[in-house]
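So, could you explain this one?
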Amino acid sequence: MRAVLCSSFTGPKDLRLSEIAEPKPAGDEILIDVHAASVSFMDQLVVSGLYQMRPPTPFVPGTEASGVVASVGDKVTKFRPGDRVACSSWTGGYAERMTAKESKSVRLPDGVAFEAAATVLHNYGTAYYALVERARAQRGETVFITGAAGGVGLAAVDLGRHLGLRVVAGVGSGDKAALVRDYGAGDVVNYRSEDLRDRIKSITSGDGIDIGFDNVGGAIFEQMARLMKWGGRLMPIGFTSGEIPQIPMNLPLLKNYSILGVFAGAWAEKFPEEAARGNDNLMQLLAGGQIRPHIDSVLPLEEVGDAMRAVANRTVQGRIVLKIR
């Protein structure tokens, strides 16, 4: 079968399209004929050796995909051949066939396209875990989302709107403002050209933000730590800036706010039943048109390197999807 192989942690330039043997599902896994796979910032980090886990090489990248079940392991009870599914996995998505844990797969409702389905579990799953499970967001609260036009960020804007939050979107360039407004942001802050502290104080009438959803890290997170409301929740989601922030711990002490780590993948490993229920909820929201993943472009598998470079350069709004079948 055709698959993209990563043989060294040297980034997208050394990925190669190859012919390899198809995988075989373990007892708790399903084998999927992959139709579409999404390209995330995490995928780019993994092939560049910059993520917190390194798969043994060579490996097939790709953390999220959708397709049709080809066969199932002998312990699988939820799926059967022919089911349309989306799945998440640490690796394997950029291939004609992949395996995934039963607990990390979800059946697609009728009418949900493979391309859209391949963008939900990581993006919206992270946003759901952060806003619903970790922050316990309440209708009417103010959330400030950085990297708001990216995959996870835009999902958080969309889901925040659905949850009835007041969404403030942080972007790094003015050309992204229209997209985040279209997805539900009531206010937009360009933190490259505007003073973040002044804008947040103006938007919140000096009260600060209830929920900080930060994809960027570095100096942005350090500024957010000074903009929290009493009893707020500040969540590090990722570090696309490449800088892991450090903050004085008297800041959360003075305002009694919490810093909540968000690692949705680890949560799904430790609590698979809760994560599976969250995935089912998201697919129902997708089928009902209550969330709407934004697909920047659909590319053939051969252009995976270009897709990853675009993600790394932050020129992508939403997700790039690879069309495999």
User: Anything to note?
Assistant: The longest helix spans residues 272-287. The mean pLDDT is 95. The radius of gyration is 19 Å. The first strand starts at residue 2 and ends at 5.
